[in-house]
Amino acid sequence: MPENERTTDGEAPTTPPQAAPEAVPQPNPYAAAQPGPYGPPAAEKKKPAVPVWVWWVIGGALAFAAVVIVAIVLIGNLFGGSGAKSVAQEYLDDIAKGNASAANKLARLDAGDEDFLLTDKVLGQAKRITAPTATRTLTSRSSDLTQVSVTYKLAGKSYRGTIELDKDDKGWYVSRGLTYQLPYVSSTIPGFSVPGAAHAVTSGDSETIAYPGVYTIQAPNKYYKLDGSPVLTVAADTYELKNLKLTPSQTYLDEVQKQVDAHYADCATKTSYYDVEDCGIELSYPSTLSVSSSTVTVKVDESPKVDIDDSDSYYQFKIGPGKFSAVLTGKDFSGNPGTENLTGEAGYISADIKIVDDKVVVTFN
What we know:
Layout: H1 52-78, H2 84-97, H3 100-106, H4 120-124, E1 130-139, E2 146-154, E3 157-168, E4 171-176, E5 180-181, E6 209-210, E7 213-216, E8 224-226, E9 231-234, E10 246-248, H5 250-267, H6 273-279, E11 281-283, E12 295-302, E13 306-308, E14 317-319, E15 323-331, E16 337-346, E17 351-356, E18 359-364
Antiparallel strand pairs: 1-2, 2-3, 3-4, 5-6, 7-9, 8-10, 11-16, 12-15, 13-14, 15-16, 17-18
Helix pairs in contact: 2-3
């Protein structure tokens, strides 16, 4: 019946109610999956990119490498590596072997006038140190400067010393070595020499240094003789040179004699009485002629003989009287011309003697 129709009794017809459609259950996206009759396959775990055991292996290898590096450094320092103590020990060993050039290289030594004893020739002929040992080190907190205490033996005696090392981009080097200044040489002696040295040690070599050792002493040159067989011990407690007795050699006396002869020959050429006297010839005084108005002719009959002086100075000599004759020509006290014969001998003479370029030089004053 149409919707707008009514029943005869005026009541609207009744329509049986419609059943509501059943709700279709929707899956819960957050719900856990339900196992099937045999259970769902377990979700596979994601494997790490690198196995854990690999990391253990790598870590162990790095630790081992670090240990090896440290061991190499320690072994290098103990057995000739670049450590301060090993360089110090190498330096001491070079001195003990007589290898001065190697020690100089470790000390970066620029050879100067005061270093002429720091050579292989000199150190190689000396009695050298034994049992040298670098015992301990003390390093500055603000720099690489390191003090190394050392011990050694020399001629049956034990010594202690200290050297210093420093470091730059080239490595460790000895900045203050095991050298000692030689004892003072008095200017009253000509000095001394040691085997292998380029020249003698004289009073002008006040800052000469040498490696520790026992050095044989020799005469400084051919013009002197050395009594006995003295030695020089260079070490921490060496302060003086003992038992050094030098006497002029015959070569010295011969050279001085030649120059004394030449000096008196020159004196004999002078014609003034007082000039001859100032030159070192003492003439007898005339009895009849005036000295101031006369001239003199001198002859060397016998040149004064040179001999060794008895004084403590090795630079002095003494001479004999010699023998001179002279003729004075002039006027007597009455103004009349005349001559007079005079005699003479060596008078006071002062002279300085030096050895210059291996030659004796006598300077008369």
